[in-house]
Amino acid sequence: xxxxxxxxxxxxxxxxPLIDSPEDLKVGISRNVRDGIWPINGLRHPLEGDTTGWYIxxxxxxxxxxxxxxxxxVKHLNEWCPVVLxxxxxxxxxxxxxxxxxxxxxxxxxxxxx
Length: 114
Description:
- This protein is of the alpha+beta class and 114 residues long.
- The protein contains two helices and six strands.
- It has helices at residues 4-14, 77-80; strands at residues 26-30, 40-44, 51-58, 69-73, 94-98, 103-107.
């Protein structure tokens, strides 16, 4: 499925510049997103190397364990957690939190200070 239209709508809705996340780049993702745990959280740091800057995890808690996130190409997110795909053009410095029936998207400039 092509998410370009949905990504544009999300960016316009929240006032974010549209910064693409190409399918051949990677996100950092927690393994627990495949377990049906809610909410799903995402935050975007600046792009670096072969990464989009996105970190995505499930649940209320964010872990600082160095093995919490694993690298995953954007093209595989449809298998892991398709609900996040429409948020991936939000610019660095943006976050989201979603459940089955709730969506929150906001700018967090502290993500740009790395």
